[in-house]
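User: Hi! I'm working on a homework problem where we have to compare a predicted structure to a textbook description. Could you give me the structure for the chain below?
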Amino acid sequence: MPLTTRQMQGNAGEDEALAHLQRHGLRLVERNFRCKGGEIDLIMRDGAALVFVEVRQRGGGGFGGALASVTPAKQRRLIHAAQFYLLRLKPLPPCRFDLVAIDAGKLSWLKNVLEAHA
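Assistant: Happy to help. Predicted structure tokens:
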């Protein structure tokens, strides 16, 4: 099944985010982790820390841009997916949630943007 234009743009944004994070020393663990109720675009290692990365891309700043597109519902789905992923890890590593926001081609990397509360 061929990808839609939106899917191709999303993949290109993830590729750009991945390359940026790798240039800054992070290592890819998994890409597009999916579970029932959530998805994580990139799971990376930053030293001992496991980093769950959401990549958001917008063509312009309308409606608040890429950052504003991470709604409370989206945050809950990210936390759910991360918790599901962590079930298979012993011992649990230190974790954080990062956001790579791409607005009109300008990439911003925001570290530790969510706090997971069990």
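For your comparison, note the following. The chain has a mean pLDDT of 87. Residues 5-66+73-114 form a domain with the Trna Endonuclease; Chain: A, domain 1 fold (CATH 3.40.1350.10). Good luck with the assignment!
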